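Bifunctional trehalose-6-phosphate synthase (Chaetoceros tenuissimus), 1300 aa
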Amino acid sequence: MRSDEIDSSYGRVVKLHFACVARLPIGSSLRVTSSQLWAPGMSTPSDPTDAKNVSQQANASALPDNSIPSDFFAYDEQAASAGILGSSSFGNADASIIHSYASSVEMVTCPDTYPLWRTKKPVIVSLRHHHGRYEHHHYRYMVVNPGAKPNDQLDDGFGKEEKGDDDEQSVKGFRSSNTNVSTTNEENFSTEVMCWEDPFQIDQAGKESQKDLAARSAASLTSVKRNVMSKSLANLPYRTIHIDTLSAAVQARLRHSDSSVGENSDDETQFTSDGIRIDTWNNANDYTFYPYTVREELNKQNKLKRKSIISRYTSFNSQDTDSTASINPKDALFKPEKDAEIKYPPRLNTKVSFSHLNISPEKERAPSEVVVGEKGSEINSGYESNASSLTMTPNPNVSSASLKSAFNRRKRQRIYFVCYHLPVIVTYSEMDSEYKIIWAESLLAATEGSQVLRDYEAHWIGTVSCSNRPIVTDEDKEAVRKLLEEMKCTPLFLDNEVSHAHYHGMCKQVLWPAFHNVDLLDLAMSGIGKDNASQAEFENFHATEWDQSKLGHWWQAYQTVNVAFGDMLAEILEPGDIAWVHDYHLSLLPKIVDDFEKKTYGRSMTKKVFLLHIPFPTSHIFRELECGEEILKGMLHADVVGFHSFDHARHFLAATKRILGLNHENMIGGLIGIEIGRKTVIVTMHNVSVEPFQLDAALSMPSVKDHTAKLRHDHSSRLIISGVDIAQSLSGISLKLMAFENLLKDYPIYQKKVVLIQKCLVPGNRILDEVNTLSEVRKLVQRIKKKFGPHVIDYEEINGSSLQVDKRVALWKVSDILMSTPIREGLNLLPQEYVYCRKKPSHPGVIITSEFAVVSSVLNGSLRVNPFDVKNTVTTLDKALTMTTQEKDTRRARDEAFVTSCTSSQWTRSVLQDLYDATAATSDGDDNESDDTSIMGSKFDRQQLITSTAQFLAHEREIAFSRLDIKSAVSAYRRTKNRVLILDLNGTIINKEPPGKYLKRDTLGSSGFDVHPEVKDALKRLSVDPNTTVFVVSGDSQENVVKAIGDVSGVGIAASNGACFAPPLKDGEDSRNWKYFDLGVNWEEVKKIVLPILSKYTARSNGSFIKLTHSSIGWSYYSCDPEWGSLQASHLVLELEHELQPFDVRFVMIKGIVEVVPKRLNKGLIVKNVLREVQDRSKKSNVDFILCMGDDIQDEKMFTSVFSFISEQESPEAAEPGPPIVDENGEKITGNISYHSETSFDEKSEQVADQLFAFTCTVGKKSSHAFTYVDDARDVATVLMRLAGLDRDSSITNDEIAGI
């Protein structure tokens, strides 16, 4: 269906009943579950209601590194596909009991009909978008035994070969003896699942997986075991029924006039008297298992294809060839050789087709047998659809020879190293009149013998410049481009003005100081003033002086350059490629590329790494950047974000939490993951060292001997202290000189015995900082020489960013001490070069390094100093000068192994391994049978070849849970007559910022702002329609809700999560008539106990306050420091639990608030009450349109209650009544209470609407019981305006919706 078409069946409700013959042990009963299932009284796994779990959730938010296991509140997509809506592990990390939760619907029987079981209430399904006539609903049966434990089941008849009265076997299936799986009963309690259907013995895979658990980390055992069991459950067989989207009728089977489908299957299908197909427990011959068997055949084919692809790539990677040709996989795999047009990439269609199949459910096939259709083509997995198969079968028009040729040409996976400056040196030879290019000394440059270059097809992208001739003309650019092409480099030529503003302005004047923790207040004084610069220097370089007024221009140039890189990548990147973006110059690039792929293909098609080579600042400094949020969001669109130091990674994690409100968690394998939406971004840290073969080559150069001899001749009688530093303020050269000066002063003996050889590099990218720094250094050098003589310092200034390699290694060979004292520094490989040059059999040296440098955490044998502590630095210098040879040798031994082995190639492979692990950790697939460890295999296999039931069902769920189709919803709204809209307030109508953010731009609740006027206008238009009921349900207090939305008289409102509510105002009324649910809690007594405790926590937590509503007491830490507030909340809940044991209350933590609420209270109460009364008051038609929208855990009950209401319409007399309702005086109210109507429930006519449309919609794509989702509150505004007839998209920004 095209995006501009309206689907008339979208959102239509279908009621499904199931029947199954099952002979169960006494006391057991049958239930049915599915991937799109609601259940009355369903708890939400990520919303714990007991104090212990709420406390652990709060503690995890405060201190994720030191708290409970990372899987405590994890949502398992694979489990969800099996009907397991959430899983959580309680207790310690080594707990042996694993708790999972599955939503289900009860089935009942009676003596007259046993062993036939039928659903007590229908399963409610809202039709999704479809690409054929039929929608397919997958389900499973389970056996429960209330009051029993899973481990008891071996004694109650399960799996025994006994005979019943009718000479039939007792129930068999997959016994969940190694995990606690619970499901919901009708009284808001859970019961254990004892057995699942397993006629094909799929559980053997799970048993085999248990053998591998012993090899896993003990600390990870609980989560590993849960994941294994989740996969076992998710891979169990499923049944399928087919829903005709035109008639909403359930089809027992699909008819095929041209197929022999089912000719050997059970043709004597039985039905109940009202037409419900009767299944038989654990019967593999039931036709409802047939789609599963077809899917399994496709899975087997895909496993074979995957192994074939992996073997091809493995064999190619092991070959060493000079061929560099590549092929577009579009042409090789998906595009016919003829003119037939196929859009790439194909839409993944997960529907299984049974037309044109020549197989039957009973027929056993060899794993390698290919299922074929009429014309010998492989099975198409889509119903009446021309979309490409989910299995991505090679097009039949592409011969096997051409396919093999394609793989021969495309041997290795492509990886693009993207950096602002290409790691090359370009010079122009006047003699030859041509450009010459060589690789630079860079971590990113191609190195001889690199394993990465053997395993991957590497390319480099970046800007380039020539040191002795500008590259200006088109001829020059083309000449350079051709030379770089031979080196697999692609140059990007930028406009000079834009390039200057980007690099010398935004990067060097704003980001570089900020990332090095220079406060913006100090920025103007951090060496960028003109105090020590001549007037000519200042006027010449004024363009790079810090000036707040230039920030807008610089930021625009920064964005322009990042977009230019993004445009180039968009042209050359192909699905499965890796884009590795380096450093802060291109921090927006991951998001730009990701946005392009999602716009073009609908999803991310490449893997992205972002690696920062400089420090990352504290969140306090980073918040000063007005572009900070955009930079963070840009980096977080990578799959892996890497650093050279954990200190920098820690600052990044703190910034994402305090600025964006994102939490992180520890993952299996030692990875750290940041949850952003439904994606997990891996944060990693790896150290890198020098290239041994390059240094060995340099050490063998003849010039090294000459330089070494000269240095020893010049300083023959002295111990040499050396230093090579960038002449900028943060290098700490002045502090080094001050320490050396004090050494000579405090230890006069060294005045004749030591010399400091100091090389100052002047790169010219921070001109005024360099001028200022050099002026200060020169004065100190002159002062020291004047005091102690000219021979104590050998000082030199060198233009450029590096010292020639032969001069460097010569200096290292003669130096007794290398001294580096930066006050802020990222990656610096010079100290590691020094270690390598002094390796055995050379005489060992000593390294003195600043504790603020990354290298101090890498080289364990170095002496660490605080450069600001001059006295201690002097003492350390004396220790180094007098250190014994034995101690020097011992310190060298600590670092020599690392320095000689951790090359850039090894470092690159380590980061790529993290990228693979990130894919594996977040994959929805079943990895048990995969031997593939390449990124290519991960991308190609896991996302495009479905090889397991778990993957298939998870992908089905992903496809089904889609963005709300506003056009189709509006069409349904206008075709119906009795409509109900139920909306959450904060986070839905009004935008809400994450509680984890340190500073929120909005104010708490709705006390400080109103609903946007356009949204209010839409609500007014909707509520005046006599056929439309609008209710706003909030967790806020009555006062705040009335202030926010109370002036819209036609809208009903509910506060305190539905505990109190008021119908729309009558004509002439000016105040709301509030009514209350009587939930059986003496709230005044609760307050006497709770308020003193809350006052204590409020006093110690700045920004917190007590929030009182009619039926809840809350402690809000939303405006506190997020870590401190969460930590206090974790202790508060445990303290309250002890004091409130006699009361029927529970604890809820949501949006930065810990609330004490009655156990029976949830938003579902008011939803059912409103829907029942709207149904009751109308004599013309039943409710035929429901739209329910919310954004958080509390709103999940609204979603499930919508379908609970629909299910009870078949037998309203059996509906469970809600709690009593009282007025403000505590008097009980009967009759209609949500609306002023005299029509009673019993007088309602029995007319039933022909069609019912129900849309449950969550705000933000996340795990939810909702039918669909929208992105944010702005989309909610658009929906309301379109429903109100304001046929335009909302132009409101999220800030406007938030009232800021």
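The longest helix spans residues 290-317. The CA atoms of residues 530 and 538 lie 6 Å apart. ok done for today
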